[in-house]
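Quick one:
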Amino acid sequence: MLLVLLFAVIDWAAVEQLVAQGRYADAHKQLAELPSGTLRWQLLASKIFDGLGDPASAVQHAEKALGLDPRSEAAHVQLGTIFLSRHTPEAALEIFSEARQLLPASLLIRLGRGLALQDMQRWDDAEADLTGCLPHPLAFDALATILLQRGRFPELAQLAGRFRQSAPGDHRPWYFLAAAKEAQDLPGVEADLRQSLSRNPRFAASHALLGKWLLKQGRSEEAVAALRQATQLRPDLVQAHLHLAQALQKLNRREEAARSFDTVRALKEKEKAPRQKLLFHRGARQ
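Output:
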């Protein structure tokens, strides 16, 4: 009996590891061999189908998990996240708001609600929820983004400074400190961005902001290098392509600049296209 239980634990752990690695097809095969009548199985099935690009099945299994335990924090978070990640923040807000009534002390549910409010551009409500979730990294990132978008640069600098103290190895506070300084023409932009990139060399936003700042300083060749790095890491980063085109233009590299301007136009057209949302009805989501 002990060996049977041990193998069951190993099987669950193996499926969870496959999900964490993004190997959803392999996880699906292994999950099929485990008993399906548990909360854990339904949650894993939801994550797997979400990863496989089948949100309808992902929602179905998340709701089955809630049917097994209506107070499961993990099930509420999984269900809300499916809608949040698929451009349906209104549904996510409803899910997280209902969950918060059941689990008012849950940081993750409050965080999900704050992220949904952010996506809906209900800035003040989002700020209230996200502030209550600090110093969670996702809460900091979302709240800092709101302050940056709203032009509240001194507050952004203060927030980033506090978060830097609590997470000295994180690249994000250095980026937001640089963004606040760049917006106000304050010194220290490049130094902060170098600090950000030393912690995460693959953070496209820091490369893009560095390129923009170098371009303003007349260092066009260096700007091109930074901006090319940004566009390679994030091909959909419109502003990086725009600043790259401008830097190339300054260097009289007209053909390359023209191609970058074409990319900007194509990305802007793509942004105008309506984003697919999930249908949401209480008790019958698809």
